[in-house]
Amino acid sequence: MTETDHQHDHLIRLLAPIHHLPPSAQNPTGGAASELLENIMRNVAATTPTPAKRRSWLTRHRRLVIALPTVAAAAALAFGISAALPTGSGPVGPAPAQALQITKDNSYIIIKIKDPGADPQRYREELAKYNLNIELTLAPATPDQVGRIIFSEIGDTAGGPDLEWIEAPGDCTANGNCSVGIKVPITFKSYAKIVIGRTAKPGEYIEGGGSPDGASPQDKALIGKSVAEVRKILASRGQTASYRVGWQSLDTPAEKVPANWIVYDAASLPDNVVALWVSADGKAPTNPNPYPSGPRPVQPTSTP
Amino acid sequence: MARAAPSSSNGDAAGRFERLYRTCYHDLLGYALRRTDQPEAAADVVADVFLVAWRRINEIPPEQARAWLFGVARKVMANHHRADRRWTDLAARLRQELSQVTTVAPEVPDDIRRAFRTLAEADQELLRLVAWEGLTADELAVTLECTANAARIRLHRARRRFAQALREPSFNR
């Protein structure tokens, strides 16, 4: 590029109009940007990998309980999932005929776990009869989580019918898990992966640790510290960090996480890895668009 | 398994897209604002570009994502004035906030402005991509979907034509 080219580029730059934007509009993590991002990701029923909504009761329970769509009280049935069967021991009474209790009404297929000790293959077979692309698997859990849904991943529903949880407010675990079943709209088109707790065998790893709210004291000690401090602590323990950023807890590479950010939650994973939820202000980010669809009230604009 | 695992491809795509979005949002917004008559219209350009990017997330060249996005933006803007264009509500809030934008028209000698306007639209956009958005010739190639060599040649010719236009006195008053 010649000197003349430089000069001409400078002239061309002079031709550019200058815009003064309110900071809220131009901030890539601001409300306007975040809302657009959320709308785009929800709006597109991608044929390539779909965005999955993940909810886990193992940590961060309070935020997640609030985020769940709950069934109206009138429709919620206060029944419990049969949670007493330990894995590996013989049935106490006659073996249950079905692993799941599946009932159907006009709009929903209602799934209740009857036998969390059953082979997940049986779940798949039963669900397959209803043409549902729902995968149910079991994972070792603390006793109060046996028979409970401890993890769910739902594919992009593109704003269409979503799974609903059956909540029994009187039948909750210590960490706020009140789910006792799932209601699947018969029009549900997406896929879902549901993990249900089962009794852990001796020596089995329980994800989230053994304490009722799922975080070990060591993990909790990291909360409130800066990423820089935590990196040193983990290094001294021979552990590595895996970062989660944003209200969607997106896995983020270490080099993208500033050292002065703050850890607001932590949980141990297998292989000496610790998951760290981090944010700039040390607070858990909230979903900027919690309403699934419909018109939103117009926000008052701020003056620049 | 019972955790938001980093290894699933679903999480990777969403994570990659969000990172791309946060990184390039500001530049795409600036690109659109500099080329639309009304600031609010930039909101739809940004929305349309990132919609395409999300659908095609696995096709985006990782090292040249920004240049790739400008390529999409060019096509979006070309369709911008079509009557049958579908308007979406995805960027409603951004559009509303952009109504607060104040635009300052540049103070440039008329000769320069006119000289630039005599160029073909393709030349103008080429020069704007370099001067306004700071693209290198290699990045231009990604944006224009041509080879780096072709991009360099087109840039060279556009510059020559602009230099020529600057030399010629303008008789259009």
Structure, described:
The complex is a heterodimer of chains A (304) and B (173). Helix content of chain A is 20%, strand content 25%. With 304 residues, chain A is of the alpha+beta class. In chain A, the strands form 3 sheets. Chain A has a 4-stranded mixed beta sheet. In chain A, strands 3-4-8-7 form a 4-stranded antiparallel beta sheet, with helices on one face. Mean pLDDT of chain A is 68; it is low at 45-97, 209-214 and 290-304. Chain B is mainly alpha-helical and 173 residues long. Chain B contains 8 helices and 1 strand, in the order H-H-H-H-E-H-H-H-H. Chain B is globular, with a radius of gyration of 19 Å. Classes of the chains: A alpha+beta (304), B mainly alpha (173). Chains A and B meet through helix 1, strand 1, helix 2, helix 3 and strand 6 of A and helix 1, helix 2, helix 4, strand 1 and helix 5 of B.
Largest interface, C-beta closer than 8 angstroms, per-chain residues: A-B, 69 and 67 residues
SSE order of chain A, as H and E? HEHHEHEEHEEEEEHHEEEE
Number of helices of chain B: 8
Helical fraction of chain A equals 10-25%
Bin the strand percentage of chain B: under 5%
What is the C-alpha radius of gyration of chain B, as a whole number of Å? 19 Å
Shape estimate of chain A: extended
Task: Tell me what portion of residues of chain A adopts beta-strand conformation.
Answer: 15-25%
Shape of chain B: globular
Regions of chain A with pLDDT < 50 over 5+ consecutive residues?
45-97, 209-214, 290-304
How many E strands of chain B?
A: 1
- Care to count the β-strands of chain A? 13
Structural class of chain B: mainly alpha
Oligomer class: heterodimer
The average pLDDT of chain B is 86
Specify the structural class of chain A.
Answer: alpha+beta
